[in-house]
User: Fold this.
Amino acid sequence: MVKTFFLHVEDDSPLINLHPLLKILLLVVINVEAWIIENPLILILIIVCLLLSFKFFKVPLSRIVKFLVFAIVIVQAITVSYLLGSTIPGNTVFFKLPWGTYISDMTLLYAFTVVLRFLLMLIGSTLFLAVMRDVDITYGLISMKVPFSIAFMITLTLRMASIFLNDYFKVRDAMVLRGTDFSTGNVLEKARKYSRLAVPLMVLGVRRMMELTYVLEAKGLGFKRKRTYLYQFSLGVSGKLILIGLTLLIALSIAAKVSSRALSFPGWPLG
Amino acid sequence: MRHVAITGVAAGLCLPLALFAIILIPIPGLPAASGFWIPAGFYFVMTLWFGVWGALGGHIATTIAMGYFFGYTLHVWLDGGIGDLIAPLVCLLVFKLAKANPELKTKRDKVVWAIAVPLSSLICGLWVHTVHLMFGTITWPFWYVGVLTYFIGDSLAIFTVGTPLLKSLTNYVKQSPMYIWR
Assistant:
């Protein structure tokens, strides 16, 4: 099993050993496609294919279901927004609201389409992030000619977050031991209590910043000569073909969107 | 070297706070929004102390935290991510233009802080909800609600968290070589 950001994935998964550049590009492409495609039928088709590919790529879907539950939050946000605040003309108007908006058959369909677009991004991103190791972020960004310091910065952030989470609990527990009750009071009172955690947390943060500067200096991060790397990744023939395929996919999608209504909303004749 | 440490630590510090903010005070009907954006208090202060690198830390933290709930998407990066990069930079710009001191010792500094924070929050709120609107995740009526709640929620969080930090810790941070006001 290989440890990635979110979970452990079988080491014979075809996606695990993919070049880091391709992993990041796949992430970008699936998001861009969700912006281009508006046809709900095509969106459903891609989402089903993506869900099936979890099995094919040996990524444990069951462990990601917990993460996907958060999708409910976005679904309610989109639904509330469209039901209460849109004026999309349709064949039937179901309900007129006092502030001038209305709910038509197209309102429901369009809200559903926007939900599908977001789900496509969420499921696609989850699939590719499930096979992303911290090494992939650093090397993938370097392959895209992003400076090493920026790639390292992103990896550092993810490491630091878990350290500060521990700090947060330590400081909070210390305040509880001194008599602070975080569970009582209204929202504003609670916010004020939590805001008092800010000063000790910030002191710890500034100290870490200074220590880290010396550590990075000692490890030669600011060294100006050409950097060498522990791992070597090669695209190979199949990798190059995937790269060309991804580029063509984006180009063809844009061309199809511009030249025909196949990818546009609603994507079929309404009659 | 310093900027890597500033951004890495700023983002690491803001990331768990952003996760808490979304979980504790979500806003129904507005994706990835929180009524009290706690990390803003931190990255605004860090931007005033350490410049662009502090803002970049907030940007990375927001993008990662919002992505955790709403997917690591281009949309999340474009609205909340970029929005939270613009806001502290506007505040820094106002401070630089007004030649104010982040220690907030004089009345003038306090007035600049009182103007810069709502102005930055408003600009950020406009950016975030216009991106939402363009993508189609919200509609016009919710654009107004969104901008207003963003403006109030962000300003409140920055004043509540940021003001004590600036007043009590600027003198301490001055000792570090990363401090930009010399």
Chain A has a mean pLDDT of 83. The radius of gyration of chain A is 24 Å.
